[in-house]
Amino acid sequence: MEKFKNEQQGIILLFTLLIMLTLTILGMTMIPLTVIEYKTSKNFSDYEKAYFIAEAGLEETIAQLNDDWENYIPTNLWQSLKDEDQKEQGQFKIFLEDIGENLKIITSTGKVGNIQRTIKVEIEKSNKYSLEQLIKYTVFIQKNLNLEDQVTINGDVNVLGSLINNECEITGEVSKKPLGLNIDNYIQVLENSENTIKEKSNKENDFYDLPNNISEAVENHPVYILEDFKSVVLENQKIFSGLLILKNVEILEIKNESMLNGIILFINDSKIENIRVIWNGNATINGNLITVRDSVTIVNKSKNGKLNINYMNTQDFLPNINNFIEASDFILKINYYKEVL
Length: 341
Known about the structure:
Strand content: 35-45%
Pfam families: PilX_N
InterPro entries: PilX_N_dom
Shape: elongated
Oligomer: single chain
Radius of gyration: 32 Å
Protein name: Type 4 fimbrial biogenesis protein PilX N-terminal domain-containing protein
Keywords: Membrane, Transmembrane, Transmembrane helix
């Protein structure tokens, strides 16, 4: 009996030793795997960080060019990027190349340890115009303009993108100049003007009915800022006069025998790719049709009648707010932005 007991204890001891040996082997195997996993995780973190550092170098360079486009020259040396505690997060290096009078290529490389990532950007300097300078055009479109039948534009047209003209008449010059407008500052000041009427919709497919308002004195021309309406409508035989700013409005509809006098300014975000100006019967716009970021299609809804867009001196429709707007004679535009692999 005692012999059996000793044999049983020996088996248990042997089994325990085997388990300990197995665990030891597994532990020794897991150590290099853990080290590899740690290194992989750290390398991925450094890989991401190197890109952000390259972006930071790029942003700093654009800021320097905005201050001094003609004379700014980077050091072409590695520069440290530090956090709030002045601890170095990595380094970046900038190379700047002139490829034209108003074009430069910025190459920004971020480095963390042995990992580097590079971003290349083409940047263009374009003149910044005030709204007063844009109203010399009857129609000013930053992207594409599609004209359907029975539209006559009496005045000059500037279209930065493509112009599709389906047998419509343009009596003035057609140009293609990249012009900039500091519209955000402009509208921010306008919102606080005493003549400004501001309405914002929170309903889907909502529309705004423009009033019949003929200003008797030029100092009373109103400013309307209408935001997030599906459409803004000028009903039959109405006359509207003023500065009309349409933010995130997809459709402007001008109905039969109606007339819109003044400045129409569209400002939309990426939710709307194409603005439609539609009419039925005979309708008239006297003044300026301007878009800052968008394409426009002018459509005859009823397939009869005619839309006349006539140049008119609209200087009197502009509030005198230039003294409140930050002055700058150019803006910087990024033409392409890509990582160099």
